[in-house]
Design goal:
It comes from Phytophthora cactorum. This is Reverse transcriptase RNase H-like domain-containing protein. One of its GO terms (molecular function) is hydrolase activity. It contains seven helices and eight strands. The chain has helices at about 60-75, 80, 95-100, 110-120, 135-145, 185-195, 195-200, and strands at about 10-15, 20-30, 45-50, 85-90, 125-130, 205-210, 215, 220. The longest helix is centred in the first third of the chain and has 15 residues, at about 60-75.
């Protein structure tokens, strides 16, 4: 609460709803001037709250969305609204002023949810009035305050790699070079045994092993780190 309510003051409840949210504003006017409209009275803010519609609530009709903050306020703020002097209820939906009129019997044409909500107001001492939307400014602002586009977030796995310059790789050696010597099977076996980790990662269906020497597609497998054998 912003301030403590005065039992002798006029208590005013303003509600509003948008497509995605709702608002509840409770004020008091210590000196009520009957010659002034409600938006020109000297208001003191007591409660200001709002929320978002979720899941199935997003599919409610406009009337149901506009009615919801009224019922929620009467439930959450009953300790403030249950008072001998009662309170004034203002909403910018004209039909609600008729549906929730305290001096009119329960309407049979209402939907089940609306009938249940109407019955929740029984026992409360209040008057309800329609207020033009342009005069219900603060309630309208709060009802849209939380509205924002929903951003989807997806988990992404990244893999880093480094690009080495061409000079970092050994070029293919030509058999015409004077110091060129053909590697023996023993040289290849020694290189394969040194590359244990790379060997364990080989996932090739045509891989074969003879006398400890690995061949792939009938060719000797040369580990990538054995540049001197290439």
């Amino acid at each position: 609460m912003m301030i403590f309510p005065d039992p002798d003051a006029e208590l005013l409840l303003f509600t509003d709803a948008s497509a995605s949210g709702y608002s509840i504003i409770l004020t008091q006017v210590r000196v009520w001037d009957a010659a002034l409209p409600v938006d020109e009275q000297k208001h003191e803010l007591i409660v200001c709250k709002g929320g978002l519609f979720k899941h199935a609530e997003m599919k409610w009709t406009v009337v149901e969305k506009e009615a919801f903050p009224i019922i929620k306020a009467c439930h959450d703020l009953d300790y403030l609204l249950l008072r001998p002097k009662g309170f004034r209820l203002y909403c910018d939906h004209a039909n609600l002023a008729y549906i929730f009129a305290p001096n009119v019997e329960l309407k049979k044409h209402l939907r089940d949810r609306q009938q249940r909500w109407t019955m929740r107001l029984c026992g409360l001492h209040y008057t309800i009035e329609h207020i033009p939307g342009e005069k219900n400014v603060w309630a309208d602002i709060i009802s849209r305050w939380h509205a924002r586009s929903v951003v989807g977030v997806a988990a992404v796995r990244t893999r880093s790699h480094q690009v080495a310059p061409v000079a970092a790789f050994s070029r293919l050696r030509s058999s015409n070079e004077q110091d060129f010597v053909f590697p023996t099977r023993t040289d290849v076996l020694t290189a394969q045994q040194a590359a244990v980790r790379e060997k364990s990662r080989l996932r090739v269906a045509s891989k074969e092993e003879e006398d400890g020497v690995v061949t792939i597609d009938d060719r000797l497998w040369i580990p990538s780190c054995s540049t001197d054998l290439r």
